[in-house]
Give the backbone structure.
Amino acid sequence: MGSGKKGGSQLAQLRSGLRDAGITGPKPKKGKKNQDDSRIGQYRAQQRRKRLDALMSNLNAFDERTSHNKGDLSGSRTKGSVGRPAQSKSASIKQRREKLLPEYQARHRSSTFVDRRFGEYNPTMSVEDKMLKRFTQERMNRSNKTSMFDLNDDDGELTLTHYGQSLSGLDELPDVDREDDGDEENPRGQIDAAETEMQHFSGFGEENEDVPRSKNEVMKEIIAKSKLAKYERQKQKDADEEMRMELDEELGDIRSLLFTRPADTQRQEEPKLAETKGDEYDAFVREMAFERRAKPQDRLKTTEELMEEQAKRLREAEEKRQRRMRGEQDEEGDEMLDYALESEDDEPVKRFVKAEETRSQRSRFGLGEGLASKTQPIVDQEGEDEEGEEGEENEEDEGEEEEGEEEEGEEEEGEEEEEDEDNDESEESISDAAQDLADYQHMEQFGEHTDTPDTDVLTQSSQRHLSRANSESIPTLPFTFPCPSTHDAFLDLLEEHQVQPSQLHTVISRIRVLHAPNLSEENPVKLQRFLNVIVDHFLYRTMQSDATEDDLRILNDMLLHISELTKTYPLQAAEHFVTKLSIMHRNLMRGLSQGALDPTSKTWPQLSELSFLRMCGLLWPTSDRWHAVAAPMSLLVAQYLAHARIRSCQDMASALYLCSLVSSAQKESKRLVPEALNNLFSIAAILLPLHHGRAQRGSSAVKALAEEFGIPTPDVEAAHTAHLTIESDAASNPKMSLTAVFPYASDTPSLRADLLRMCVSLQCIFARLYRASPGFVEMFTPMVFLLEIGLAGLHDVAPGLVPYVKESASEIRSMLEMAYGERRALRLQSHRALSIASYAPKFEQQAFDPKRATDPDTERAYAAKMRALVKKERKGAIRELRKDAQFIAEEREQRRVEEDATYKKKIDKIVGGIQEERSEQKQLERAKSLLKKRAGKR
């Protein structure tokens, strides 16, 4: 068939193509070998592969699919893409049969063996390399598992072996007699008489010790020795135990000797060497004898139980007091008198009886030693409980033996020490609210804070309180009081029982104990009302008192109870405090409406109101941005400082005290309060002599400076404040007391000097407070300028104040200079050079194509492109999954067909066997019937 013919079968076309390509048919004759035969052979092989590929591609035209480009108007002849679906399909089926089919067949297998030996899946390694590497790895693992400090671990070492047994494990080698062992003694090599006797006649006499023993005999001897040593140790232990028991039994006999002191003569006769070198056992016995014995104690009581016991003791004490007032006899008093009569010394016994009577009435019930005692009072309720319990224990333990009394006395002393520590801790816990009301006794020294510990202040106040109480004749107070709900009822209660001011602390303590919250459901409501009563009485005492130091100490004692009740009932306390603040605000508005410069109008707060404001600052957090009590208090203080006018020294003292409250309140938050700074500037300008000596034009300069910085100064250089300027030198007190100003203090030069000193001190305090503020320079530049101008007048009028004012001005000036140095002028922020932004062109660079989607936004176009690619890939993945599913279905169907064919073949074989047996059975039956017929015929 020629090459031009295209008809015929596929086989004929294949043969014709192979013959035309020169692959089959006659081959050319071999000539002489050339040097380039290898290159020619490679070239011919490449050509042969190309002809085979072309032949296979032209063999079946239906196996190719060509896609031509559509809409190509370029005029050039282009070749479209050619695809071979049959080849790709067969390749995909082959790939699935190699990868997917094994996974499908092994889907139910769970115990697949994976060979993890080193180099098992590395075809480049030889068998020798694999074995060597595995041996090295095994040695390394074994050495890592063992400890380098374990001397008994010999598993990881290489040992010599013989027939599989380690040579190091053989303890003894078998005794082998060699011929050359006795060559020196017997040079001829003959057997001597001793050896002959041992070999032929042994066993009748004693064993020779020189003969080496066997391993069994050696081990038996070792076991026997160990048992003997163990028996001896046990015997020694039993002997020691018996001796120890005897010493324990004799310890009671020698215990009395341990507490006796030897005579002086005996001690002198003892040598000094014995004192230094004593027996250790005797020292140990003495230590055991002096150790305190542990005594069983009751369980710790809850707070509710302790409060109930306190209330019960108070009621019992009140019953006994009423019984004594009625003239009834007290059993404890009789016992004490009997004890007193039995004593030999009368005077000491009488004093003891008198002291015991006083103690039985006050200290025995846990209520403190009373106001007439010199000991420290009990501030908190826990201390009262502990003291009461100790009193009861002392009463119960009176009839015990001497030894027990001594031990209990030591324990009670320890308990009293612990109680004192607890009282100190309780005082420290409430001392934050018990400060001297912003230093009632003395305001802070100029330029520095008084860092007196709160606990010391409280202790000193209590001691003064007790010393004052000792000097007075105080009537006996009842132990139970009703809980008043109004202030009038409380005043009636105090008047009824003739309660002295120094006894208020005791009365309030007993009321709180009797009406504890856990004793009744109504007690919390009663205590909430009683808190309002105490606050009202606090203000009442400040208004009625003469502002003496004793009155202020009594107010500090009341502040302890107010602090504790405020922490217990904060919501109700806040409502009452806000009510009081609103009343103070209405009084301020009423005074301003009457006239701020009217001498009779009450615009500035008095001592009671100042005390209340200080109490608010102690009891409530002033650093919060918003608080139900602290925020209204701050606004009220700012209104006082902004709207009230200065008319007298008392007004300036109130203003300075309010400024000190502001400084203590803003110590944490450091919020700016311009009213306080403006008041300090105005008070300093009023007090400083700006018209004397070298400062004659100072007033006009100060007014201009105040106007420049926006400081309101309505009272500076006014007629109603002209008499307040310092005109003469006077001694100033670094610690200023409010009692020197309120209620009716006379205007004296010393008072003005004290006010100026306090004003300058507060300026320094605020300067330290606002040192980190961005506006520090603008806030304190006018103050420094004012102080420097006033120094010129003080040199002529009051030279005693010059050093302190000069020192304060220099301190503020140094802080201003530092603030100036830390400031940085505003300037443009430096940035790195930015490149010119490149934007997408608004026109299309290619020719317009209506079928082509174009988007000028590159980001949006890229997002659309990515979405199209994702869609395309998803379709391709779905197509492949469908093909995988079709392949699995075909394999499953093929497997089912094979199983069915196998089953049919098996069934056919069984049926065929049965039919064959049946046919043979029928043939046998026919043969039998034929034989029977033949036999019958015969």
Q: What stands out?
A: Residues 645-822 form one domain. Confidence is low (pLDDT under 50) at residues 1-5, 171-189, 201-207, 333-474.
